[in-house]
Amino acid sequence: xxxxxxxxxxxxxxxxxxxxxxxxxxxxxxxxxxxxxxxxxxxxxxxxxxxxxxxxxxxxxxxxxxxxxxxxxxxxxxxxxxxxxxxxxxxxxxxxxxxxxxxxxxxxxxxxxxxxxxxxxxxxxxxxxxxxxxxxxxxxxxxxxxxxxxxxxxxxxxxxxxxxxxxxxxxxxxxxxxxxxxxxxxxxxxxxxxxxxxxxxxxxxxxxxxxxxx
Amino acid sequence: xxxxxxxxxxxxxxxxxxxxxxxxxxxxxxxxxxxxxxxxxxxxxxxxxxxxxxxxxxxxxxxxxxxxxxxxxxxxxxxxxxxxxxxxxxxxxxxxxxxxxxxxxxxxxxxxxxxxxxxxxxxxxxxxxxxxxxxxxxxxxxxxxxxxxxxxxxxxxxxxxxxxxxxxxxxxxxxxxxxxxxxxxxxxxxxxxxxxxxxxxxxxxxxxxxxxxxxxxxxxxxxxxxxxxxxxxxxxxxxxxxxxxxxxxxxxxxxxxxxxxxxxxxxxxxxxxxxxxxxxxxxxxxxxxxxxxxxxxxxxxxxxxxxxxxxxxxxxxxxxxxxxxxxxxxxxxxxxxxxxxxxxxxxxxxxxxxxxxxxxxxxxxxxxxxxxxxxxxxxxxxxxxxxxxxxxxxxxxxx
Lengths: 214, 399
Known about the structure:
The complex is a heterodimer of chains A (214) and B (399).
Chain A: E1 3-11, E2 28-32, E3 36-40, H1 47-54, E4 61-67, E5 70-71, H2 77-86, E6 88-91, H3 103-114, H4 119-128, H5 144-155, E7 162-166, H6 174-191, E8 194-199, E9 210-213
Parallel strand pairs in A: 3-8, 3-9, 6-7, 7-8
Antiparallel strand pairs in A: 1-2, 1-4, 4-5
Chain B: H1 2-8, H2 14-47, E1 56-61, H3 65-70, H4 79-87, E2 91-96, E3 98-99, E4 103-108, E5 116-120, E6 123-124, E7 144-150, H5 151-164, H6 172-177, E8 179-186, E9 189-201, H7 211-221, E10 231-236, H8 242-250, E11 253-255, H9 257-301, H10 303-311, H11 316-356, H12 366-395
Parallel strand pairs in B: 7-9
Antiparallel strand pairs in B: 1-10, 1-11, 2-10, 3-6, 4-5, 4-8, 8-9
Helix pairs in contact in B: 2-9, 2-11, 2-12, 9-12, 11-12
């Protein structure tokens, strides 16, 4: 997949609202592979909604979302399954990790399905992000910041044309944010993936090509 | 898949599944056992009267001293009486006995003993009422007549006549291998035939020959003579039908009471088994319902996890599979246990039946197994579809 286009997209709940200040809702926007995009937003401007629309989780919007000129709103379940496995990775704001499983198992439940990363690589990332000693800890027992790092690793355990990150560093300090930015940049460049991150203040420091306001 | 299972087995309620397992086992066992006993019992009731089909009644008019013996009233059925019988709801088919209008004499040459011979008579019923795999029929020019004999006749000879005269007793096997010398006289002719007993019956108190022979012989040896319809054979749906019993009483018809009772017993036994099997079906349905509710509840409790798995890229079919497998494994285990239990119980009662009926041969287990496996497949398919449907609704966030 080369590009994602939004054609006058706007969530149903924003109907009638003045969206003049938004560069995205109601506009024509195009995201391309290999480019980095930052979407800055205030709370309640529909940042998570946008991620959900792009990931096929929700479709309560007007206008069209086009994946390489195909209307994503009409994709069947099987197409979305394929996209989520091999084309679009999403790091959820609420992470969606399984608290009953360990950090390592949370990664494996994704990587076993895609077979994309080696165990060695994943272990290196754990060490790199400073959670090497937490591999066998239950997610439920880890801090939110630590969980965010596990969730990032999981997001990278699949081939992707686009990587979406919804407020990826909300609970991380400067240094860890830096590490995450490096890891994300490195993986995106390696795959030639486009990156779309959102932020409501603290932004992940990447070399953004374009910044939008939601 | 292991990790997925580790996630999705959360909230499994063992008591619920144990409840389903027991209930379903009981239901399955009742159904399969009911069918098996029904088949085996049918065999017992049919087996003894192999060549007379079940639910047949023979009726005749009552013979009274005043009416019949003194005033010589006819004991034959008139055509309008037969027509009326045929119209009755409980009667499926009416067959008329044809008596012989000629003289019959049968002789027996047995192991060197002097020939014994006796005057006899023949009767016949339409072939459709006779159910024998032996050669049954007659073509003009044949020299051989197959005969079905009441078992009482043989008993009369063996336990009455033979013992008092110090004659050897005759087994059924021997009797069927002996050729009888049949002499038929009438219309100024006298001819000899070979007769052979092809079977014995408890139900028919007559010497039965094929209808074709009877018609031909009556025409040949007693032309022009009216054939009296003194007895009729009825095929009835339910021999215990009260309307039937009343009808027979009202018209002064008689039938062998004990045979009526045997039919009634068989009928009631069958009815009981049908009811029991129906109860089994209800229990099974309820058990399957429990299973469905348990799995639904499980899915409901795990719906967040299921949604997250699908957001990770698992397809609805993939996350449905653990629950579908769970249901199949549980039902298969129930089926297996039920089959083992049926084999075990059947083994026990077959021994008893064999003691009562030495010639007892049970039916196979095929029907029972087919029904069991059929139920299993039905439930598996049904469950598969429901779980898949549920997953789709989680995908579509419709809960």
